[in-house]
């Protein structure tokens, strides 16, 4: 049984409020505990971060850059051990888990280089004896919340730009997958960061929130989470006008025109629908296929889905998809399927827990394909966040766009066609922050990752992500 605590100013702090049990979703057994901090301990961590901000914000950009590059090196050195913890607590294959950790190291490196490129402006004067200088300064203490589906990757999207900007960070790991986040932060701290720059706090969400949202030291809150959680953050942060970066839910449409590369569209659709057991904000949940190829597409899609192999994180060969993170996720899938079937949908494959003996102890759910779907079904309106996809059809471009835009979300959409004129036409009409055309890799370290509508506010990735952690200041001088 592994035992973990919180990391404050480079020291491990045991919480005073009991423990969080960390469960291996492949077998349903507790394999680690994390002690929970009380509210006073949370306040102390924030105060330490505030003290650290006084120095870190004045640290020359070149030194911050070098510090982040050292963090990246240390994370790469420990990628295997962090990856093993990530695989065990989240359920994804070890291959995918280690890849995630290495991607987080890339993120640290990228923002390390960007740290020396924070630029201001010299606006034109409005009088002969006056001069204006516009500079950018770090916001202050950042509270960053890790998501359980990609707990290392997504926290790096917050920690790296915040540190590059000169902010200090208090990280709250997910209760489901805290260990890999803790070890990622430990690696960064061990690389030589000053002691009050980066902290990890664990505990009950309510206890931590009670302190974070009223504490004036916390100036910005960065979250990857559900839309409902994001709305609670907006409401709570309004009392003290805290800045927010929220990457929230998605319900991605996947549009396939008749002229698309058929085999690629099917292969990519299956992969993006079921990777990480569908537990991805940009997972494909709704597929819209042009009417003339609908039957052939459904047949091929189901055939490939039925070949997918379920398994544990360390199975050999690596499985195509692992378990869901907890029992609640499995029950959610059952509810979505039951709702769809009750309203007339047909289950072509999956739709239930697996019957194989080797999978009985974990939180597994078969990859599921639904057809004969209608707009009133939950699967067509709400994000299932699991291995469940519905296939529908369209006759015109306008119908495809209308169906894709019919939900409250707007994170990522996918589009397959060989007609580049139509690709631009549809991409511009889609109410989604990212549109991937003929590929299923919508995010890039070098480009913004915005959420439209109820999928978020603020930006992550690219230089845009760094700018979220900076504030403008106008300095006006009388020079004559």
Provide key terms for this protein.
7-stranded mixed β-sheet, 37% helix, 480 residues, alpha/beta, 14 helices, Aldehyde_DH_dom, globular, Aldehyde Dehydrogenase, Chain A, domain 1
Question: What's the CATH class label of the largest domain?
Answer: Alpha Beta
CATH architecture of the largest domain: 3-Layer(aba) Sandwich
CATH homolog superfamily of the largest domain: Aldehyde Dehydrogenase, Chain A, domain 1
Q: In terms of per-residue confidence, which ranges show pLDDT below 50 for 5 or more consecutive residues?
A: none
Number of strands: 20
Broad structural category: alpha/beta
The total count of helices amounts to 14
Mean pLDDT: 97
Order the strands across the largest sheet as they lie in space: 14-15-16-13-12-17-18
Which bin fits the share of residues in helices? 25-40%
- Looking at how many chains there are and whether they match, the oligomeric state comes to single chain
- Domain module count: 2
User: How far do the termini sit from each other?
Assistant: 71 Å
What's the main sheet like?
7 strands, mixed
Instruction: Give the overall silhouette.
Output: globular
Question: How much strand?
Answer: 15-25%
**CATH third-level topology of the largest domain:** Aldehyde Dehydrogenase, Chain A, domain 1
Radius of gyration, CA atoms, in whole angstroms = 23 Å
Organism: Thermatribacter velox
Domain Aldehyde dehydrogenase: 12-475
Protein name: NAD-dependent succinate-semialdehyde dehydrogenase
GO molecular function, one term: oxidoreductase activity
């Amino acid at each position: 049984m592994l035992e973990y605590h919180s990391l404050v100013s480079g020291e491990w702090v045991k919480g005073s409020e009991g423990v969080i049990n960390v469960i291996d979703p492949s077998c349903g057994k507790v394999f680690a505990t994390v002690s929970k901090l009380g509210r006073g301990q949370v306040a102390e961590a924030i105060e330490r971060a505030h003290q650290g901000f006084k120095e870190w914000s004045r640290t020359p950009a070149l030194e911050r850059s070098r510090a982040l590059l050292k963090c990246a090196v240390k994370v790469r050195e420990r990628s295997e051990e962090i990856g093993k913890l990530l695989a065990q607590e989240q359920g994804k294959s070890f291959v995918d888990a280690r890849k995630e950790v290495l991607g987080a190291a890339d993120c640290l490196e990228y923002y390390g280089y960007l740290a020396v490129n924070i630029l201001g402006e010299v606006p034109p004067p409005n009088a002969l004896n006056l001069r204006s200088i516009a500079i950018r300064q770090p916001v202050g203490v950042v509270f960053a919340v890790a998501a359980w589906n990609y707990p290392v990757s997504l926290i790096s999207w917050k920690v790296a730009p915040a540190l590059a900007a000169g902010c200090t960070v208090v990280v709250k790991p997910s209760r489901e997958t805290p260990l890999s986040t803790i070890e990622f932060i430990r690696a960064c701290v061990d690389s030589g960061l000053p002691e009050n720059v980066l902290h990890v706090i664990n505990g009950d969400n309510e206890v931590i929130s009670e302190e974070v949202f009223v504490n004036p030291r916390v100036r910005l809150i960065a979250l990857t989470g559900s839309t409902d959680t994001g709305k609670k953050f907006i409401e709570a942060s309004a009392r003290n006008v805290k800045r927010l970066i929220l990457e929230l839910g998605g319900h991605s449409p996947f549009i396939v025109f008749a002229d698309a590369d058929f085999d690629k569209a099917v292969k990519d659709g299956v992969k993006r629908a079921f990777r990480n057991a569908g537990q991805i904000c940009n997972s494909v949940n709704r597929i819209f296929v042009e009417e003339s190829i609908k039957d052939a597409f459904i047949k091929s899609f189901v055939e490939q889905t039925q070949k997918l192999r379920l398994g544990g994180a360390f199975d050999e060969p690596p499985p195509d998809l692992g378990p869901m993170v907890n029992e609640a996720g499995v029950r959610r899938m059952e509810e979505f399927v039951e709702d769809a079937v009750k309203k007339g949908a047909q289950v072509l494959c999956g739709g239930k827990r697996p019957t194989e003996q080797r999978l009985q102890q974990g939180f597994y759910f078969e990859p599921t394909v639904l057809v004969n779907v209608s707009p009133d079904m939950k699967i067509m309106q709400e994000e299932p966040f699991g291995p469940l996809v519905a296939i529908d059809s369209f006759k015109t471009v306008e119908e495809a766009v209308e169906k894709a835009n019919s939900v409250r979300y707007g994170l990522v959409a996918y589009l397959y066609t060989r007609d580049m004129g139509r690709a631009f036409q549809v991409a511009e009409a889609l109410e989604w922050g990212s549109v991937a055309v003929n590929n299923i890799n919508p995010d890039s370290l070098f480009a913004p990752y915005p959420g439209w509508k109820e999928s978020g506010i603020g930006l992550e990735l690219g230089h845009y992500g760094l700018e979220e952690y900076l504030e403008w200041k106008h300095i006006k001088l009388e020079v004559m």
